[in-house]
Protein: C-type cytochrome
Amino acid sequence: MKTAKIHHVFVCLFIFSVFSCNQKKEQKVETIPIAQMEIKLDLLDLQAKNRLGKDTVVTIINDPVYHKEKKYKAVSATQLIKNEIDLTKIDPQKTKIVFECMDGYQPEMPLDLFLKSNAFLAFQDIDAPNGSKWVPINKNGNKMIAEPFYIVYESVSENDSRYKWPYNLVRIYLEPLNKSYKELYPSKNKKLETGYTLFQNQCITCHSLNGLGGTMGPELNYPKSVTEYWKENELVDYIVNPSSFRNKVKMPTLGLSKQQSQEIVDYLKYMSDNKNKI
Ligand code: HEC
Structure:
């Protein structure tokens, strides 16, 4: 199954080029950027097939999820990617790694940054009580279990927000870095570009608009836009600080200013006039 997808596409491209080369000489396999393909690693599937790699124990001095020193049983995540994906076929500078978590959360980061980072895929917490694999995480009063996998780094500061530490991780995708949702771009009013960019960077990992985006939080545009059932000033305040509205809220406080939140709400109002059936 190694690089099966790439292989498959190559076979298709090959057949295509054989059929088409009579008409179009320039239609060569090499000219088609491999990074435009989506590559997926199903981690549970790889574990079941014993293909995760060699077990090791890692120590994380200041774990950003547990807020203390932690030790995990883990495998090298960078090595796993190198084993499973033929990296000579893609350009890590133009590719992003997307983490799919069980609850629909989908954080992402540039692949080259990830490959340089000495990342590990933790599958068991050494501190876990006998008979269990994980110590529960306490998040805003909710108890969460990190299973099945949690990405950790031995030499990355917990404050470096370029790095993602997803838990409940089930799949890894590689996608082109510049893949953003162009369908959601406010092409009829370019002044809303700031709100669009903020939404792409801060919200789309958890929320969808017209069905495009993450699924941890609710869809915000269809069939009813949040701007249609929230009072505008309260929506702005909610986005700045969700926990001032709801107890045990799962949506994080993202550190946005009121001004930035207003830009997002203006963009969401535009999107409410641009609904697309999913
Ligand atoms: C880590 C995931 C996450 C991120 C990032 C996130 N949200 Fe949320 N959001 C949620 C969840 C989950 C809910 C459902 C309520 C709850 O439990 O917090 C929610 C609820 C909401 C609601 C209320 C929906 C309703 O119908 O009442 C709005 C509006 C909202 N989010 C907007 C945003 C915006 C705008 C951003 C970006 C600035 C954002 N969210 C970023 C997870 C997230």
Q: What stands out?
A: Helices lie at 4-20, 43-48, 77-84, 111-115, 193-202, 226-229, 232-240, 258-272. Confidence is low (pLDDT under 50) at residues 9-36. DSSP finds eight helices and twelve strands in the chain. Residues 182-272 form a domain with the Cytochrome Bc1 Complex; Chain D, domain 2 fold (CATH 1.10.760.10).
